[in-house]
Amino acid sequence: MKIAILYGGISSENKISIKTAFAIAEAISKKFDIEMIHLNGHISAYLKKMLSSDLVINALHGGDGEDGTIQAYLDLHHIPYTGSGAKASKISMDKNHSKIIAQSLNISTPKWFLIKRSKDFDIKLHYSNISKFDFPFVVKPSDEGSTHGLTIIQKNDDIEKAIIRAFEFSDEILVEKFISGRELTIGILGDKTLPIVEIKPSHDHYDYDCKYKEGLSDYVVPAQLSDSLGEKISEDAMNIHEALGCRHYSRVDFRINDNDEYYFLEINTLPGMTSTSLLPKAAKAAGLDFIDLIQTIINMAK
Fold first, then answer.
1. CB 255, CB 263: distance < 8 Å
2. Averaged pLDDT of the chain
3. Residues 182, 247, 251, 255: which is the catalytic one?
4. b or e along 183-197 (b: 16 or more beta carbons within 10 Å of the residue's beta carbon)?
5. 21: which of 59, 141, 186, 192 fits an S-S bond (Cβ 3.0–4.6 Å)?
6. What residues are paired with 115 via a beta bridge?
7. Residue 291: its pLDDT value, please?
């Protein structure tokens, strides 16, 4: 079986995509004929290579690789690939849209509102809505991963700079209530949830460095939760995954406060597959080593 691994791209998560791709290649290179495709131009330039493969592993993160653009192209040319399809990817990448769907499922999500960039954009026009949030609250891009452009607002002086920074990554940003408490993530593989992971970052939130640099975060797998609470959170993670139409695998992020009230933050349809990545940690706790995890995803995508 010949497998093409698609990686790189032009998103802010380019470096993580490269790490994911080479981790996957190392894991399966002895079993499959691997074609590494470093995407640094329009995907049409790589069509011949992809058509000559039996399957494309989508190791892209963010941008066109995760928002449904690449998926729609692969669908158009009848090229099988790993991960969610075009429609599910597009909706899931949009945090505003996915939060609305979570609400429709009666799953709590932090209070928020959306700000769109326009030619005559004036931050002051949004202060009446912003003033409804108690400190701290979060400003972040609506369609960006790896916490790029995210700021936790502690005082009024931080607001304008945070909004400008978030707009560097997206034309739509969220202002969202900050949920004090624990950070949890639930990996989904096929039709099953994996053990819940609790993330304990060394910084004030799970930022880019804590995600990808060794030693800056601790992880508890499985998270220490009552059986009933853990089952409920996992059930809601699966409900979101299914409602969005996701397939093969995903990772759903929550915050949980001191009263065991949990809140949906976002879903990742192409979670990282690096040495510090959360989905492989959860899979390992379920008895699947990294090679088994990738093989399982390949089997689902054939």
1. yes
2. 92
3. 251
4. bbbbbbbeeebbbbb
5. 59
6. 173
7. 95
Give exposure, 79-109, as e/b (b: 16+ Cβ within 10 Å).
Answer: bebbbbbbebbbbbbbbbbbbebbeeeebeb
Question: How far is it, in rounded angstroms, from Cα 283 to Cα 156?
Answer: 42
- Minimal CA–CA distance to 287: which of 175, 194, 172? 194
Mean pLDDT of 3-28: 94
pLDDT tens for 209-222 read: 656 566 667 999 99
Note if the bond before 222 is cis, omega within 30 degrees. Answer: yes
- Identified catalytic residue from 62, 176, 272, 277: 272
Active site residue 272: yes
Q: Which of 58, 31, 47 is nearest to 297 (CA)?
A: 58
Active-site residue, selected from the candidate residues 9, 11, 13, 176: 13
| Active site annotation includes 13 | yes
User: Is position 165 annotated as part of the catalytic site?
Assistant: no
- Whether omega before 280 lies within 30 degrees of 0, making that bond cis, reads no
Q: What confidence score (pLDDT) does residue 119 get?
A: 72
Where residue 206 falls among pLDDT bands split at 50, 70, 90?
low
Q: What's the whole-number mean pLDDT along residues 52-70? A: 95
Strand order through the sheet with 151-153: 112-116, 172-177, 137-141, 151-153
146 in active site? yes
253 is known as an active-site residue: yes
